[in-house]
Amino acid sequence: MAPKTAKSSGSKANPQKQSKEFVLKKASDHNVRFIRLWFSDILGLLKSFAITIDELEESMNDGKGFDGSSIEGFARHAESDMRAFPDPGTFELLPWRPRENAVARMFADIVDVNGNPFIGDPRQCLKRNLKKASDLGFTFYVAPEIEYFYFQNSESTKTLDRGGYFDLTPLDVASDLRRETVLTLEEMGIGVESSHHEVAPSQHEIDLRYTDALTMADNTITYRLVVKEIALKNGVYATFMPKPLKDENGSGMHVHQSLFKGDKNAFFDKSDRHHLSRIGKSYIAGLLKHAPELCLVTNQWVNSYKRLIPGYEAPVYTFWSKRNGSSLVRVPSYRAGYEDGMRAELRSPDPSCNPYLAFSVMLAAGLEGIKHGYELPDSIEHEVHGLSEAERKKKGIELLPQSLGEAIAIAEKSKFLKDCLGEHIYHSLIENKKLEWGKYCAEISNYELDKYLPVL
Fold first, then answer.
1. What stretches of 367-436 adopt beta strand conformation (E)?
2. To the nearest 10°, the Cα dihedral for 149, 213, 313, 306?
3. Which domain holds residue 360?
């Protein structure tokens, strides 16, 4: 994967501290007529409603009311009245909309009828966890590598090419799609490090530049929409489904992450043989220990577990390394010995997760490791699939959940997950996933019909 620095120049926490007055002037200067207020449900699916420019100032001051009872995981009918407060720092024009009578978007924070941050809002959940880090003096930086597929349409998995990893040939017919996507992201103020063809046919990756976790969660939601909008504009379909092709690699969202204290990378220790500080080691140990519990958030769909199987470059076991491509956590060595290159890369999440909740649980797991002084086991640079269960247990290596059902069962016993997400999101998510798992288990697949019908 593409190298990254732990914190790129210009990647400050909350980089767009735009005032309400600045937003109103920018909207006037660009002839903005409509503003879409964006937020996500607990599954990370983008929700939106539009206000006119005449409502913008009042909405920034007092919020805009809406019915939350129909939003997945938000509220029951008896407590459905909510208000969305647009975040001035997230005002951006939508480049794919007409310039005349332009359309902008703003992410909104959701509050309840009493004016308190709504406990079921994923963005508020991330803010709560970021405050815990801030109280310890840390700023949490992340940079995801987000993979996806282009197909000819949404009704099939017919690919656009037969290209492979890093291919730059006529086979990679989506180069122009990636180029237009990157330019659109940058026009919206989202920094991009690199883009390329991935391993599977018609699979692609665009890597976003490091920034603080809240900004990156907003950027990830925006990224997914931009990829789909540009694809639709060009007559094709883009999907972040984790495993759409049976015999090919699935799509992941490897998340590079680090903690900073001021301008100092808290993960770095020049004197350590891995250049990892005590804080960095305990943080990674926290990711490893709580990884099975994270899966309900980082890998939330039935299809997610079709990706987490041996042989397709996705992690299956809880160990870390510097070079082992099947490790759950990798400490990249592109810039070994340099403070700005020290970070941990969690490789299990997939691109269809809710980034607000995913970044929340990653940070919470790492902070648990720091708080309790978890010991980091030795790195493993050799293949582990061939080890027996007893050998893996001796090395402290666990197996990640192999199905959504297993992930639910682990999450139901997790006090850590409940404390991180809050009871409202925790119980709503488990309830939602139980329904999905139950419906999936009741389905009769083509595999079953092909295998059993002729012989039973």
1. none
2. -60
3. 127-447
